[in-house]
Amino acid sequence: MPAELAEGQPLSELFARAQQLFARAEGGGDGGGGGGANSGGAGRQEATQDAARQALELLDRCGEAVERLGLFSSNEEKDDLATGDLKYLAIPYLAGQLHADGPTSTLSARATALQRSRDCHLRFLDRLRQYGVLDADCYTTLERLESGESSDPTTTRASKIALFKRERAVKQQLEVLTQRRLQASRTVVSLDDDDDDELAQAGGGAGPGGSV
Predict the structure, then answer these.
(1) Type and span of the H or E element at 141
(2) Beta strands in the chain (DSSP E)
(3) Residue 180 CB neighbours (<10 A)
(4) What confidence tens digit (pLDDT) does each residue in 52-95 have?
(5) How many CA atoms lie within 13 A of 150 on its CB side?
(6) What letter does residue 85 receive in the DSSP assignment?
(7) Number of C-beta neighbours around residue 204 at 10 A
């Protein structure tokens, strides 16, 4: 049975809609946090910003639903995750991207957006750490970011870039893993159906009058 939200809409449908809006928002802007200044006109820019706003609202609802439904547990390992739930690990990652790339009118608003983006990325990485997905270097950089440890700005920037590249790669790996699991499930179902057909054919000719 699909996970249901309070409004009765399946979580899978809500997340799929959020992904569509995310793709529209990220595809319509310049990807540099400028709010789509080069996106081809004020109308397109407004549509892009509206898509980002709606996507964030839906991702927030999805995140709340995931917590309420208890889809992820600190007692689980990655092999215990249900295939259908893997995609929900990316919710904070997507939200973090939208906060980082969204338009802002003041330096204060930009700082707030970047802080929200950082918080979302840390939640994503922390969940990956929980399931033992991050490597040792990522652990070290994540702990440094979480503790607010100061260091040389150039080194800090390089560490963040490396971590976020790894983060993006892990997200892509989650998508690949999901597809592989789904394909494996379909293969098993197909084999089971073939076995059932063979048994039915064998049973049809086994008894008196079994042949057609």
Answers:
(1) helix 136-147
(2) none
(3) 11
(4) 999 999 999 999 999 999 999 888 888 888 888 989 999 999 99
(5) 0
(6) G
(7) 11
